[in-house]
Structures are given as structure tokens and as C-alpha cells.
Amino acid sequence: MNKELKIAIVGAGSSYTPELIEGLSEHRETLPVKEIVLLDINEERLSIMEGFVKRYIKHLNYDVKVWSTTSREEAFTGADFVSTQIRVGGNKARIFDEKIPLKYGLIGQETTGVGGMFNAFRVIPVMIEIAKDVEKYCPNAWIINYSNPTGLVTEALNKVCNVKIAGLCAGGMRPRWWAAEALNVPEEKIYYDYLGLNHMNFSYNMTIDGRPVTDEEFSNIIKKCTTVSQDWMETLHLIPSQYTQYYFHTKERVQQLKEQDKTRGESILELEKQIFREYADETNDQKPKTLAKRGGGGYSKVAIGVMDAIYNDTGKWMVINVANNGTVRFLDDDAVIETACYVSKNGMKPLTIADYPKAIVGLVSAVKNYESLAVEAAITGDKDLALQALVAHPLVRDYDIAKPLLEEMLEAHKDYLPQFYKNGK
Amino acid sequence: MNKELKIAIVGAGSSYTPELIEGLSEHRETLPVKEIVLLDINEERLSIMEGFVKRYIKHLNYDVKVWSTTSREEAFTGADFVSTQIRVGGNKARIFDEKIPLKYGLIGQETTGVGGMFNAFRVIPVMIEIAKDVEKYCPNAWIINYSNPTGLVTEALNKVCNVKIAGLCAGGMRPRWWAAEALNVPEEKIYYDYLGLNHMNFSYNMTIDGRPVTDEEFSNIIKKCTTVSQDWMETLHLIPSQYTQYYFHTKERVQQLKEQDKTRGESILELEKQIFREYADETNDQKPKTLAKRGGGGYSKVAIGVMDAIYNDTGKWMVINVANNGTVRFLDDDAVIETACYVSKNGMKPLTIADYPKAIVGLVSAVKNYESLAVEAAITGDKDLALQALVAHPLVRDYDIAKPLLEEMLEAHKDYLPQFYKNGK
Amino acid sequence: MNKELKIAIVGAGSSYTPELIEGLSEHRETLPVKEIVLLDINEERLSIMEGFVKRYIKHLNYDVKVWSTTSREEAFTGADFVSTQIRVGGNKARIFDEKIPLKYGLIGQETTGVGGMFNAFRVIPVMIEIAKDVEKYCPNAWIINYSNPTGLVTEALNKVCNVKIAGLCAGGMRPRWWAAEALNVPEEKIYYDYLGLNHMNFSYNMTIDGRPVTDEEFSNIIKKCTTVSQDWMETLHLIPSQYTQYYFHTKERVQQLKEQDKTRGESILELEKQIFREYADETNDQKPKTLAKRGGGGYSKVAIGVMDAIYNDTGKWMVINVANNGTVRFLDDDAVIETACYVSKNGMKPLTIADYPKAIVGLVSAVKNYESLAVEAAITGDKDLALQALVAHPLVRDYDIAKPLLEEMLEAHKDYLPQFYKNGK
Amino acid sequence: MNKELKIAIVGAGSSYTPELIEGLSEHRETLPVKEIVLLDINEERLSIMEGFVKRYIKHLNYDVKVWSTTSREEAFTGADFVSTQIRVGGNKARIFDEKIPLKYGLIGQETTGVGGMFNAFRVIPVMIEIAKDVEKYCPNAWIINYSNPTGLVTEALNKVCNVKIAGLCAGGMRPRWWAAEALNVPEEKIYYDYLGLNHMNFSYNMTIDGRPVTDEEFSNIIKKCTTVSQDWMETLHLIPSQYTQYYFHTKERVQQLKEQDKTRGESILELEKQIFREYADETNDQKPKTLAKRGGGGYSKVAIGVMDAIYNDTGKWMVINVANNGTVRFLDDDAVIETACYVSKNGMKPLTIADYPKAIVGLVSAVKNYESLAVEAAITGDKDLALQALVAHPLVRDYDIAKPLLEEMLEAHKDYLPQFYKNGK
Prior knowledge:
Four copies of one chain form a homotetramer.
Chain A: E1 5-10, H1 17-26, E2 33-39, H2 43-59, E3 65-69, H3 72-76, E4 81-84, H4 90-103, H5 114-137, E5 142-145, H6 150-160, E6 164-167, H7 174-183, E7 190-197, E8 200-208, E9 211-212, H8 215-222, H9 230-236, E10 239-240, H10 245-248, H11 250-259, H12 264-280, H13 291-294, H14 299-311, E11 316-323, E12 336-344, E13 347-350, H15 361-380, H16 383-392, H17 399-412
Parallel strand pairs in A: 1-2, 1-4, 2-3, 4-5, 5-6
Antiparallel strand pairs in A: 7-8, 8-9, 8-10, 11-12, 12-13
Helix pairs in contact in A: 1-2, 1-14, 4-5, 4-12, 4-17, 5-6, 5-15, 6-15, 7-8, 15-16, 16-17
Domain Glycosyl hydrolase family 4 C-terminal (chains A, B, C, D): 194-396
Family (chains A, B, C, D): Belongs to the glycosyl hydrolase 4 family.
Keywords (chains A, B, C, D): Cobalt, Glycosidase, Hydrolase, Iron, Manganese, Metal-binding, NAD, Nickel
């Protein structure tokens, strides 16, 4: 097999990059990559990462050309896949997303709630620029997006650009992994219906080897979802996303977040300093052990799974963020949903959903409503829409809280929100 | 015109009854009532009311036969309209609905939130019995329902019985009344699109005399909706139900409810004692002045409006609670919605809604989801469904709160919830 | 009441004009018209009609200013209603519509089938020009359209212009008139569900005075629909449009059309010569008797009914051609349907349809599919779309017939189809 | 791999059986069949077939247990797949389906039009009995149905029984095979959107290796669809089912059918005599050469494809007849459609269809409307429904033709239509 693939990694200064490299290396038999380009605007991190990755592929005995650039034109020209994993404003901005909402008694979190909305506000304008360049320099390439919040990013790009994009998250595959582990069966034997959005979703009708899981098996599987009450999951008889903890256990989670010494962003900021010291160490050619504490596992597995399904046209069942187009009948066509798809070289085709679990359609509708308003606000910079989005969010809803919170968040993130400050507003 | 109508008033012991009598009296030209039957299970109040109404119609010079009974068979046989205005458990039960949720930091209210759900749990089984007797004794009669929560009662009856029912609330006509008053135009000149549910609805695209209201007119109209922030209504550019205050100003309302001396139910309990003393006074043949403090205006206006539109086949535009059947595309066919209808002898036909205000579809979906789960729980007495309904409610949502709250409410209302305690559970 | 309405009649040279004048005269109490402007491109007929109408209103003792013009600017400025009743190519073109399809064994008819499509192709470009001038000179006026085929004209104008348009046909009210006559009840007592399109529709669930019609009454009503087999209507238990004869009795109707001496268009051409001689007779101030043979009754009744409902804001139930917007769930939002509406100053609001008669949804879908393709072809002049429209038509369907027929029809009507011959094609 | 599969072949006396055996033999590596049971009500043909199949598997060196029975209980107990390929009334009944409609100027064909409806009327009651026994004796088995008309049979079984059924036809895979052959690419590289029903469907948006086919490639592919006008397919830019010839070239096909010496059924009747003589020949252990003239190729390929996808849980893309459930938005949920599915051990999950080719939605709707009415009539034996179904069929539509034709067909097939002659009617 001739080597033929060129992969551009946008936001390559991320500490995740080596895991993606490792994954590609492990799949070298099926994914014949000839070239990996690292792209970042942070030249210092980019240079450290380029150095490390070059040592690392030597260590892995992985024969591939690696180079870095800050030019999208160079990175994208000829690319087959553009992996995007950016965080605009970095972990510093994330810390605002985590801390400010807490002052108002709300969940502070990078993808869920107010924090997620501002994450979207910061990331979407940049992702649109990136996608416009994909349109220009490699129109047939697939964008493999991991930038959070991936559902909102995907919906925004679908609206404004004409690109092929897969909005990824390991969350959609997690019920498979949980069941495989809990029941000791190969994951490929496991299917389920999947309703919802990124970080707001529910799996049900699970089958193993074509037969429904038993109640006992179900109970064992949901034990893996440690963030949500087991009793509640039994009552629902659904496997929820771990992130639904913020909806079902709001009060307790707010309390816990308030009590913690450091926010997740603060911890990671520290951790990353350590990790980058190790990356920068020219004698080191292996993944830093500290990385394990960093979290975010499953990332490269899903990303490479999608690339493999596309490149090798394997027709794989995967859960991905795509435009609804009638899949979920109570949502709009252009709403991006997270849903089970048939993935092949022809792209992602959602599987029809025959029945919905009645208990959670309202919650999914409400969160999607927030998402679509937030996407529109992120694109236009319309403050009234941003306020409507916040009030539409089930975790906010109270106008009296939303109003001042919005102002404080806008002010805090001002430097990364050009769309809201267009005319010097 | 020959007198021909027989009207049965179920729950006639309610202090509202005289207002309904007064309204019928005022419409004697168009609604030729020959007989009004008062029905109640509280024989004491029924007897007082019968005495008063007989004096009152004499005072009004209203020539109609009035009598009372505790037999549904007698009351319903030959009836044209069955007006239902029952409150199961009375204001005593209502006080639990108001007080217990507050202990959990939630809105305590007779139609919105947890309180509304338990109100539905108590009322629905009784309303089903009543409707079954309507089926039996006067199958062509219309049930004019005012029992709260009217949307859930209507949905339950549609599910279980085969009766003609109009679920009423003055709320749907209020934007008309507000606009008529604010702008000094006849109310018949005013139309609007109306999206939502009882006590969770939004009016928009208002026209006067065929032309859209101006921004200035809009600002004047919303001043009448004193419970919701004017700024927020301007941002939404929608006229909300006054009850949306509990969603948009939750924190403040909870605080206010906590700080009040007496709950609404407690005040009314006292007030009603005074009102009934006046009703019982055999020298009195006029509506007690205390009644004005009782609230609930607009009731007889809407009820008689519907009877008139049906009896005289006038083809009136009215907002009523009816089965969705495709009117709102993101809700199920059997979901009862509050919506603008063409009302004639042929019943209520909802008007198609061409466009939805994007900012509030999630909230409406979420509340409807709660409602449908609650209706199902009210009919079946399934505790798991009741718990799902509570968690689906945007004002509750937190499982950790919902779980103990449900238990406490079930216990408090035990005597009125036979469906939940079937097997001595 | 001050006189205030200005009405512009487009295509006023039509022999129908005096009936419209007569209708307005009869409703002078409720429709205070101060000015009627007659507009036509045929100056000879326009002049005859102006002369006659002036004598006629004197005869009717109807005090209104009547004048004529060939300038749309003059006619439309200040107009409240623009009545459009044009026939592009006149009855001569109509005769092609009637005769050419017959050569191919198909129905030849001015609104149904191939003939109707070419009628649309000729009329739509002219109606678009008219509507653009309405936008310009009297943007608040309502277009009261009677130009055939009214459903396609309405859909085209909705697509291309921004005007208020009511697509009228007496057909939608005919089941009411039939039932009123057959059962001797006032027509206002009669309601029904109505599914379909102009000239392809079905009435059902009919009620009189709020109660369903009996089987015997139904049998009496359908006797009025003389063009369709009584047995078949009994089997369907639906009241069809008279025009459905061309679908349910195709073979027989083709035979009859082939055997007739003259087509309808030819007869009318002769009749109109006679009618116009009478109109031109300056001693004559009354409607010619010959007019009765002309047909098309009910026209002014429906047109004036709509103007009255709008002007006086009466909230009437009427069947009108409007955009679907979710009324019929299996058709697109922008598909124009003929449907029961609530008509007021606020326009036409379709009533939700709860259930569809299963036997005819396919036929309605197929004809609507043809219509939407034909509208698109009429606007764009795309011959491929015209061919697809013809093959989509249930009365054509056979490609081998459609292909040469399309060519022959295009050639015959060439002078009136600028959109298909744009580049001298 | 242990041998483990038991396959029951219902209607095993069909001349197709050996091809199915051959297919199974070719896939012995992936489909480890231990037992094949032949079931038929025609004991003579069953005995001949059993004899031949036993010689044939020896010839193929295929180690499997083959035996025959007339007992469904014996055949089904323990079965994993039940292959159904029955023809009620045999080719003799088929000949009526072909000949009688022609007398009325209509297409006479075993699956399309009147003939297809009566085929359904004969087959559905028998298939329901079979399915009830599957429910009873092997509830986890998949019914692999090839009995014509497969869409109607599948819809009927979904309505009345609770079985797992795949309604098969080679037609859905044909565009793949055509493209693979025309362009010399592996078939697995080819995908398309697929809209419609069995024998009334259209493929579009075809991709090869992830990229859209070029116009030139499209032109080459459609050359394989020899029954439909190339020009017309170019105009549509769709790949139609070969059976759409009966809709797009009706007149010509009727003429051809009228002119043929023998109907297809008559030819096959003769052919089968010859084929069965060869099967009966105890010295013969190979497929008769005459079989090639028999037609119906692709049968075993698709049937075994589905069994393989299910048994080995391979997640294959295949076109299959399944319940709609929102896949095609303008059709009912329980309407069976032919559509692209993801096939695994978990069954068939249709892929969402994002856009529909506008030119043919009406035709598909109309045929589906006929189908659903026909299924209902086939189950209930309601003659009015049968008449409505016929008139709803685009190839019939004329009531005057449908009425006597229905009577003649009912009479001809009387012996096989117990549901229509329940009370000696």
C-alpha cells in the first residue's frame, strides 16, 4: 500500500497531540499517512511539540513526515483530514467559564451551561475562519473536529461554510465501551438507539449480539456512569451522558464546584506546565506520565475510527454530531444532533430513530433550543440573542440571573469576542 | 325565542358560582337558559349557594329555574353544558401545594410546578368519573372546564373518555383585553398568534384592525403584564402569560413566597369563610363585596363566550385548550395545547400556526413533556412516571430534590390520591 | 358610514365584471365603495365595459365612481382591493388547451391537466408583473384572485412577490351550498373538513348545527355533485370537487369531449360576441340574458364574501387557496392548498386538519407535486421542469405521450410564453 | 467454527430453491449451516426437490443435513432463518393477473397494478398464518421474505404479527450492480440515496469511493436500466427501478403485452415443466440449464447477504423493505418502504434521507397510498377498501374501469380469497 494521506492538525500545540500521533501509528497498517502537519498560533508550544513528535515517531518506529507551520495555506493544501482541537483563550479563559457562573449559583463548566456558551462564542469565529480556508485549500478534506463544544461548532460551520465536518466526542461511544467492559463482550457486538446532543444524550434499546440486554446487565452497565444516580438511571431505564449530572444533580454539583480548591482549568494549567516541560526535554521521546492525569481519553480512538471508516470505506456504526435532517422529528432540520450514523467514504448517514424515550424529550428540546440560539448569537454577535440563549438554557432560565451574568461574562472574555464588539460597542 | 338550555354546574359550592350566574343573566338575550342545576359533594356549601342564587336571580330579575342536587344522574340528564370548577381537597390541599415545595427552594403554586402536578393528581381521577357520567347521561353536552390545571385535565379526559370538552382559562384572552385597554380599541379588532400551554404561553404577531401593532403600542401593551420584566418582554418581543414569572423570575418569586405571611390558599380560606357568611345571610341578594378580593376575574366572560359561540354558532376566535393534532409541529398529536381556535357549534378548530418564536420553543416543549408525563401518572398512579414528570419539569429538574419532595407530597395528599395507593401501597 | 373603499378590477374587460358590480351593489350597506377602476389591456372591450357599467350602476341606483384606465399605476394607487380575473391569450388560447391534449387521448380542459398547466404558464408571468405593481403602488391592498388556475397563481405569487393574496374559487363553498339546498338549512349552519387543492379536493366530517350529517342526508347532498358517480361517492363517503370527474371518469370524459361539436372555449367565444354586442348597446343598462349561459356562478359571492370578511373584520369561515404552512402534514410548507380558513381583517388563517380520508391522500399528493413543478417551470421557463410536471400529473404520467405533447403545446402558445423563449430558443 | 444454523425454506418446491442452496454452499465459510428444511404444501414438487437438493449438495461437496416436511411446526422449531418464497395459486393464478387487466386496457403484471394487488390478496392471508407459526415455534428467527409483492407482504405482517421480517428484492441493490459493471468498480465502493417502494423507487446522489459520479458516468450507468427511456432518466437525473417502465411507458407496454404470444406466467408454466423434469431426473445432480431462462437472478445473493449481515453482525449497507418510522417524512410511520439500511445482528436500521428528488414524490405517495389501502383490504377482505385501493393506483384511477375489473378479478381468484368470501358472500 502506498503512503498517501496528509493530515493537518490545527491547534497542534495541544497536549493531546501525541496521543493522536500514537493512535495514527497504531493504525499505520490501515491508515497509510505520509505527512502530518502541525499548525498552531502559539509558536512556542508548536515548536516544543514539533520537537517532541519527531522524537516520538522515531521511538514508535513510525515512518511519517512531520513538520510544523503557522500558515493555514501551507498546512491545508493537499490535506485529506484536518483535525481541529482548538481552545480560544486557552485554559485562562476556561477558568472564567468555570468561576463566574458559580458566583451566580450556577454550574461553571467548559461545555455545559454558561461556560459552554462562551466557549462557543470564542471558538466559533475562529473555526469559521479555519473552515473557510479548508474550503479554499483542501475542499475535499474532512474536518475532524474536537474543539468544544463540538455540537455548536458543527452547527455553526454547517450554517456558514460549505465543508465536510464530523463533530466528534468520545461520549457517544462510551455506552459501548461501558457495556463491553461491564459484560466482557467485544464492543462491536453492542448497539443502541441514541437520542440527544453532545453531552446531553441518552442511549437505550441496547442489544448485544442482536438480543436485548437483560435488566441485570443494564444495572451492571450503568454502574460505569458514575456521575449520575444509579436509582435515577434505573427509573429512566436509559444510559445517560455523564454530563447529565449537571442537570440531574445541579445543586450538589454546584456545591462541589464551589468547595473545590482549584477549578479543572486551574489544575490543568498547572499540569500542562509540567507536561510541556517534559515535552520540551530533548532527551525525552515518550509520552509524559503526567498526561494520564490530564483526562480526555478516547479522543484518538474515535478520531482515528472516523478517519479509518472514511478512508477505508468500512461502513462503521459510530455516534457523531451531524445535521438532524429529520432524524429526530421534534427538532429542526439544521439542528446538529449527536446520533448513531453509518460512516463510510460517503460520509455520515444518521440511522432513523423509531421511538423516543418519553421522559427526556423536553430536556433535549430545551437544550437544543439554547444551542441553536447560542450558535446564532456566536455568528452574529447579537447580544439579545445571547440573552435569549441563556434564558433558554435549562441550567439558567432565570432572567434576573442571566442578565447580569451575561454582562460579566462578555466583559471577562471581551478580547476573544470580536463579533460582540464590532463597532467598538 | 324559547328557553331551552339546561346548564349543570359541577362544584357549584365554589364562591365563583354567582359570577357565572351573573354572566348568564347578562347574556339572557342570546343564551336562553331555562334551567340551572347546582351540583356539589359539599352539601352545606351547596345548600347555602342554592339559597343565595335563588335570591340573586330574583334580584337580577332573571327568570330561570335553579335547583340543586348531589346526584350526577339528575344533574346531567338533559344538560347542554356541564360547567366543571372543582378543587379536590379544597384550599386545605392547596396549602400543601404552596408550602411544601418552598421547603425545597421551589415555587409553591396551585397550577405551576410541583403544586400544579399534585393538583392534577387529585383532580383528574374525579374529573374522569364526572366525564364518564357525562358520556352516560348527556353525551352531546359540552364540558366547559375550569378545574385547574385545565390543560392537564383536558388531556386526561381526551385520553380516557369520549366527551366534548373545552379547557378554559381567561389567560388566553388576556392579551386581547390588555391591548384593548392599553390602546383603547375594541377587543374584537385584535388578533395574535398564540403558542403554548395553559399558563405557559406567548402571544405575538399581534394585529389591530389588520395592521401589525407598532413597537410603541407593543411597549404599552406589555405594561399590563406586570409580573414579568418589561425589559425581558421587549427583548423577547412576545407577550407572555403572567404565570411565566415563575420561570423567568424564579429566585425572586421563591423569595417573595417564602416571605409572605400567608399563602394564597390560606388567605382565600379565610376570605371564603367571610364570603360564605355573606352568601348564607338570607337577607342578602347581592354578590358579596369581599368577592372582589377573591380574584379569578374573566372566568365567566370566557365560559359564557364559549357557550355563546357554540349555542349560537357564531364562529368566534377564542384561545382554548384542545388536542394539538398537528397545530404545533414539534408536539405530539394528543398533547393538549392552549391555542387560538375558531369556535362554533361544530366545536373548536385550532388555527394553523405558521411560525414559532424561536426563543421559547424549548421551554414550551419541556413544560409540555412534564405535562404529558404527569397526565399519564395521574391516570395510572405510577410513581416512577410521577418522578420522571417532576424531573422533566423545568422548575424542578434536580433528581436529588425531586425524589424526597415527591415522597413528602404523596404522603401529604394521600387521602386524595387513590390511584397511587391502590393496593394499600 | 363614509364611503372609503377603492377597488381595482384587473381584466375588467371580462364578461364577468357586471356580476361583480352587481354583487358590490347588493352589499353597499356593508362595503362602502367610493370608487371602482376598470383596467384591461384590451382597450376596445374596456371601453364597452366602462360604458355599460356606468349605465348599469345608474340602473342599480348604486352611487359609486367608475372609471377605466390601462395604467396599473393609476388603477392601483390608493386601492384597497385588486380583483384579478385575467385570461392570457383569451379564449383562443384556451381552445388549444382544450383541443391539443385530446389528440393524445388526454383530457383537454382549462384548469385540469395539460391545459391547466399551459394556462398557468401564460398567466403566471403576467400576474407576477401585476403583483409587483401592487407591491409598488398599493402594498396594503389585498389581491382577490380569480385568474385560473388559482392555486398555481397563488403559489407563484407567494414565491416571487411580497403581496397579500387570496386565491379564490367558488368550489370550496359549494358543499355548503349543496347541503343548504338539499337539506333546506341555512348555509351558515354547515361546516366540514376540507382536504386538497383547487379543483382537486374533498369535503368530509360535515356537520349541520353542530351534529354530523346522517347517511341519508349525505346521500342527498352528493346528488348535487352531478359529475361524479354517486356509487363512488358513497364508497368514498366524501364530497368531491366536481372537477374530480376528470380523474375518476377519465375515459368517459375524454370520449365525451372528443364527441362534442365545439369545445367550451369555442362556445364561449361565440357567446361572448353576443354578450359584448349587448354590453355595447348604449340603450341597454341591464345584464344580458345570454350571460346566464356563460356559467361561472358563485364568483361574485365568494369574492365579495372575502372582501366583506376582511373589511368588516367579521371572522368568517371560508375555503380559500393559501400557503400550507403545516396545515396538511404530508405537503410542503410553501405548497398552496385550498382549505378552510378563518378570514378576518388579519387575513386568512387555515384551520388545523386533524384527520385525513385515507383513500385520497395519494391523489392529492400527486396533483400537488405536479402543481409545484409546474409553478417552478412557469416562473423559470425551464423545459425539463415542465416535462417533469407533465409526467408527475396523474392524468398524463406516460413519458412517451408527455414529451411530444409538451412540444406541441409550447409551439401553439409560443406568443404567450416569453419565459420559455427567452434567448430566442 | 461449529455448524449451528438451521434454515427453513417455505415454498421450497419453487424452482429457485437450488439457487439458494448454491448460494449457501458458496458462503459455507461464513454461514455455518447444519440443517436445511424444505417445506411446501405441494408434496409432489417437494419430494422432487428434496431428491434433487440431496444430489446437488453432494455434487457441491456441501456438508449439510437436508430434509423435507409439510409440517410448519417441525420445520420452524429451532430455525434461525425462515426463507419464504411462496406463490399462492401458482402460475395459473398469475396468468389471470396478467391477462384480465389487459382486457381493460391496463398493465397485467404480477407485482405492478391490479395483478400485484390480487397477488397480495392471495399471498397475505397465507403469509400471516406462516408468520403466526414463526411467532409460536421460532420467535427469534428472521423471516427472509421473497414472496411477491414483498412490500405489501411486509407491511401486512408488521401490522398483524410480531415477527422479525426482512422484505427482500434484488431491485434495491441493482443500481450498485449496474454501476459496478458499467464503471468497472467494486460494488462496495458505491452508495446512493434511495427513495421509494418495492418496484417503485429511485436512486440518486450516487457516490463512488466517496465522490459523486460524473454526468458521463451517470449516463453509462443508466444504460443498464434498459426498460426506461434514457432521455427521460437524463431529464430526471435519477436511476429508476426497471418496473417504473409500467408507469412511464404505460401505453407502449400495454400494447406489447397485448401483442405477446404468451404471458410471462404462461411461459414460465411451460418452462417449469421442463425444469422439474430435469430436477426429477435421478441421474441429474446439477442445476438445469433451462433455469437460466427462468429469470429472477440476484435472489440468492441478496437473501444470503442479509443472512450473513445478521449472523455475522457485519453492519452492511443494504436496501430492504422495512417500516418507514420517519425515514420518508411524507409517508406514515407504519408504511413499509424500500430503503437503504444498516444491517447487523440488531436488525435493519434505515438511514435518514436528507433530501428528496422533487419530480417523483407525488408518484411514490400515490403508489404507497394504493399499497396501504390494498394491505388493509387484504387483511380484512373489505371490498370497498379494495375498490378504493384500485382507484388510488396511478395505473388504474378510473372508477368506471376499476369497478367491473375488481369484480372480474375477485371472481377469477375466488378460491384463494377466503377473506373476501367469509360469509359465503
